[in-house]
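URGENT: need a sanity check before tomorrow's submission.

F., can you look over the Paired domain-containing protein record below? I want to be sure the sequence and structure line up before it goes out.
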Amino acid sequence: MPPRRKLNEFERGRAVAWFQDGVPKREVARRLHVSISVIVRLIQRFTATERVQERRRPGRLKKTTPREDRLIERLALQTRTASSSII
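Structure tokens as predicted:
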């Protein structure tokens, strides 16, 4: 099975507009080359929130500050043979 293809914001808006114009979900999925479940979830999210943007995903918090990042980068460039645990 091929990997999932994410729809960009323009394609999501186009899919919702097609659906609102009366195009069946299967046809919308075929036009955008995605599975029908992608379109079903998109329409459900749109009817609940009136938005086509993805949710914000914060991710993991950084443990180092920008200053520490610069220091690590400088040390790595100065001592190229040093391992990460030494740096």
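My own read: The chain has a mean pLDDT of 89. Residues 9-49 form one domain. If you see anything odd, call me.
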